[in-house]
From TrEMBL:
It holds the Pfam family UBD. Residues 1-11 have a biased composition (Basic and acidic residues). Residues 13-110 form the DC-UbP/UBTD2 N-terminal domain. InterPro entries: DC-UbP/UBTD2_N, DC-UbP/UBTD2_N_sf, UBTD1/2. It comes from Olea europaea subsp. europaea. Residues 1-27 are annotated as: Disordered. Residues 12-21 have a biased composition (Basic residues). This is Ubiquitin domain-containing 1-like.
């Protein structure tokens, strides 16, 4: 007989950063930060639970090892290993844009 917790370990996807991507136009770190803040401020209004959004934000801003621990402890079901699509235990869908998960290849570095 399998133990009840075995499903979670098998289904858990190893989290990784999104593949390199480019924004539609080069942006600065300030612009990227503003976009991220706007997303996190408005995301909970589109549905889902605030505590899951908070966990996803913490995971998005952490390294992959810590992100893995955060989503597992919050009960987040990771659909895409780069965290762009996740679900909570009630089946609510959470979609994260790449810009909250990693920097674009065409980020303008401060000189």
């Amino acid at each position: 007989m399998g133990c009840a917790g075995s499903r979670d370990k098998r289904d858990a996807k190893k989290i990784r950063k999104p593949k390199p991507w480019k924004h539609s136009e080069p942006i600065t770190r300030v612009q990227l930060t503003r976009m991220r803040d706007e997303f996190w401020d408005t995301a909970p209004h589109y549905g889902g639970r605030k505590e899951i959004w908070d966990a996803l934000r913490a995971a998005a801003e952490a390294d992959t090892t810590l992100a893995q621990a955060i989503v597992e402890s919050a009960g987040v079901i990771v659909q895409n290993p780069d965290l762009t699509v996740c679900y909570d235990e009630r089946g609510a869908k959470y979609e994260l844009p790449k810009y909250v998960l990693s920097e674009p290849a065409n980020l303008i570095r401060d000189s």
